TrEMBL record:
Gene source species: Sphingomonas yabuuchiae
Residue intervals of the CsbD-like domain: 4-54
Identification of the protein by name: CsbD family protein
Pfam families named among the record's database cross-references: CsbD (PF05532)
Region Disordered, annotated ranges: 31-53
SUPFAM superfamilies: Hypothetical protein YjbJ
InterPro entries: CsbD, YjbJ_sf
Family: Belongs to the UPF0337 (CsbD) family.
Length: 94
């Protein structure tokens, strides 16, 4: 769990408390602020969850690529050259 997820959950909880207090006191402004904070907290929590998911998915792939480059430097250079030429030809429209 990263800081975005934790901060988002805390903001969401604080918004629920503020909304409840606003409803209990009859303060529509406080209630609306609470709803806004909940939305912001849920958004931040979703961002944190997505960041964690990407990190868990991409990190192993990067580790495998680094290991491949370390184990086979010449094959890696050849692959890089082929990809570079393909990219250049694509950008030039050939």
């Amino acid at each position: 769990m990263n800081t975005d997820t934790m901060n988002g959950a805390a903001t969401d909880f604080g918004g629920k408390v503020k909304q409840g207090m606003g409803a209990m006191l009859g303060d529509k402004s406080m209630e609306a602020e609470g709803k806004g904070e909940q939305l912001g907290g849920k958004t931040q929590k979703a961002f944190g969850d997505a960041k964690t998911s990407v990190d868990q998915t991409v990190r192993p792939l990067l580790d495998q690529a680094r290991q491949f480059v370390k184990d086979r430097p010449f094959a890696s250079a050849a692959q890089g050259g082929v990809v570079g030429l393909a990219l250049l030809n694509t950008l030039r429209g050939k």
